[in-house]
Fold these 3 entries.
Entry 1:
Amino acid sequence: MEAGVRVDTSGALCPVPILEIAKAMRRLPPGTLVELVSTDRGLEADLPAWCDATGNELVRMERRGAHYVGWVRKAG
């Protein structure tokens, strides 16, 4: 999946991955696809909850070895 922006928070724990994607989303136009990469397994619960709370679309989540990857499309 080709994202317009990639946010890599590998090595950081909650709440850093969510804070970083929120920061990235603020400066992007609606419809932009953002790839979030994390080593924090909490992302599997945190990212869907954040998308529900913000109205952004969780397009997909997957695990790649020790990494958790989520694709989010900015609402609007």
Entry 2:
Amino acid sequence: MDEPRERGTERARAAALDLIRAVLEDRRLMAELAGSDGPLDPLEPSDRARAQRLAVSTLRHMGRADAVLKPFLRRPPPPPVHAILRLATVEMLEGGAAAHGAVNAAVALARADRRTEALAGLVNAVLRKVADLPASDWQALPPPRLPGWLRGRLDSAWGRAAVVGIEAAHAAGAPLDLTPKDGDAGALAEATGGVALPTGSVRIAGSVQVSALPGYGEGIWWVQDAAASLPARLLAARPGERVLDLCAAPGGKTMQMAAAGATVTALDISDQRMARVEENLARTDLTAELVVADALDWDSDARFDAILLDAPCSATGTIRRHPDLPFAKDGASVKPLFPLQSALIDRALGLLAPGGRLIFCTCSLLPEEGEAQLAAALDRHPDLTPVAFDAPWIEPGWRTAHEALRLRPDFWAECGGMDGFFIAGLRKPA
């Protein structure tokens, strides 16, 4: 390896370690650490991507790494040392990195930090033993279990078999899904070498550079999980309709509705996140009115024909993409979201025109953020009518009470899974 590339790899490993420690020790989400002044900020784009891949893979397979490391440790090491051991173990056994380089790099990381330098010898000894393990030992390990606070809730909600399937989906990670601007999934699949899914998305297998895919520069598609594209598809915005996208960032649903010809207002509370919506709209040559405001305080002179509310939630349906979530959050941090979701549903209904329709969705696996919210909304507003979804791609196992859909990561397991989502439609009386 040439010297500049080697230095870049060293910086990527160090940044990955900083990300892992921040998640595990400070309970911070990786998305919070990706901005300016974060561990990734000084890196070149290629090294930044490598650091993110290393951190994500380590968090995704941490349970397996701990199982491998346990026989070689008399007692759990200090958290900073444990993070180094986990990173190197996953890099070797999951990522296929050369053992010599990964072990030496881990020892160098230990020596570079006063908190870990005294245990550099332990790092070296343990990882040399890990490096001698046959690949079959790693491959035979079961998928890492979800943390107890989340596993127990999902077990109660969906059953043990579903939880095991969800954990397998998390360990497998997520493919890349694209939404075509013109709706022609077949043509986009042919152009990109992907597969057209029944729902209208295009799925790309393997690791690819997004910006190098055909059509990126022309803005004819955008990255969006197949499940995340369904709320806007089910809303079915029509040309000329006045549509509101509440909690709009990063803008995939806004772009879907704008591409359908609707007059879209996109609202989000975050300036930084709304800047991403603006960038995405510019790249795809689509237009929407952008509003930075608190949805609970904001009002409009005219009511909307349709509203899509993708409410703030635990995001537990996206763990296969964001394995930091279960470590950075716990049950206590999720509970304040439940009353917020109820308040946002009520606010959205107040902004809806008579006869208008509301899609409420969350990327959550918790019934408290889906089924229970819908039932409570119908109790508070008995004049509402649930919208029956009749799209031909809806599978029977997705349907749940009040005409809603419940999607889980273990669905579509044979073709790469999907994010977990709850989607419900409500119509206001005319």
Entry 3:
Amino acid sequence: MLCVVVRLLGADHLLIRCQDGVERKARIPGSLRRRMWMREGDIVLAAPWDFKPDRADVVYRYSREELRRLVEKGLVPQELLELAEELA
């Protein structure tokens, strides 16, 4: 699910707003902690937890070039782009 980073919470946790309009607390797994730095306004791919729907794991952070390609294909909703621009 595509999401926007709303706020950095610290201790490898983020507050994200997803495509479905729900704000979730997301954690950055160990494999991404030091490889990908997250900022407010970044578009990320997140996997919501099955047993606790208000939590998620960050799977991937899109770069500017990848995000441009997704927009060209029409895969990113306009409301997510507006929120990302507002937060950045």
